[in-house]
Amino acid sequence: LFIASTVILLRKFKTSRNSINKPMLTASITMFILATVHVGADLRRMLDAFLHSSARGGPIAYLGQVNTPIYVLKSTAYAMQTLVGDAFILYRLYLVWNGDRRIVFPILICFIASIGVGIGALQAFARASPNAPVFISELQNWIVSFFSLTLFTNFSSTTLIAFRIWWSHRRSAGIVTGHSVVPAIVVIVESGAIYSACLVILLSLYLSGSFSQYIVLDAVMLTLCQGVVFSLVIVRVALGISS
Question: The pTM is what?
């Protein structure tokens, strides 16, 4: 999907007089690189845990350590990818609302707060004791805050973008006819709803103390929500499935 979306963006640039969509291309490449780093770090942890680790308690004890450099690297890649996605949806919000500060500024404050919380969470991981689980209160406060902030950013931005498109179409309905904005709204709401729903599931599992949160975090959030959905919107529009 990453390759397909990149080819589509570059081909559109060559076949039209419009300039290349640099923000979208930059975000796509960055998210792909960060996802690759995340997957690579997870694979390295698996190999170390089951083949090379001599930690007391075996592989489970090793995988439970949150202060190892490879775990911090994985967490950094996830946090950065999340922030890149949040920044791009904030950029979409800015464009759709024509830079209206009353709309963009509150979401921007939330985004800046998520950057600070993300940095705090990574520092907490690095400073945690080797035997500290990921659910201890010192880590939980940072993690829950980060998840909550990115959930608010995505949900509110998606809602505001969809509302703006619907409202603009409604105001111009008597002037412009024959153009439905429903497909565009559906694409925006679908992409935002998938991410928000998975984030709610992830947050619920983490607060319940379930290690299943790692499955949602690594398998669902990383690939489906942050990689697949982003690229799929570009591909769907290019193939004419959505407008």
Answer: 0.85
